[in-house]
Amino acid sequence: MRARHRHQESLDFLRQIDEQTPPGLDLHLELDNCASHKHPKVRTWLARHPRFHLHFTPTYSCWLHQVERWFALITERAIRRSSLTSVRELRQQIEQFVRCHNANATPFTWVATADSILKKIERLATRTSATEH
User: Fold this and answer.
1) What is the value of pTM for the model shown?
2) Cα separation of 19 and 31, whole Å?
3) Cβ-Cβ contacts under 8 Å for 93 (sequence gap 6 or more)
């Protein structure tokens, strides 16, 4: 059995979105800089489907993804420090968290200022440059 290539998974995902979204809508997708999105077969498919608009996040900026924040929230509040013995228990734990969260859900709000982010980066750079590797 041949292994599935990541670009094929990307194509399958794009086709699924295309099939399940009304034809008149443009689709804007936020993607990381994974090579599978840049594969020639994916590029060819996208050229034939101009309603798809890809927006790539900068390299090393996964913290910009709101979905990354969502997964971190699940990890912090539902999974970490849990004693789960099966995938079934893990799924139940996550599903329970999602139900409770959705009962009073609010949008994620970006609260950091550009200055505060730059100061954190500066502190990190100072710490890491002072460390000998």
Assistant:
1) 0.48
2) 19
3) 78, 79, 82, 84
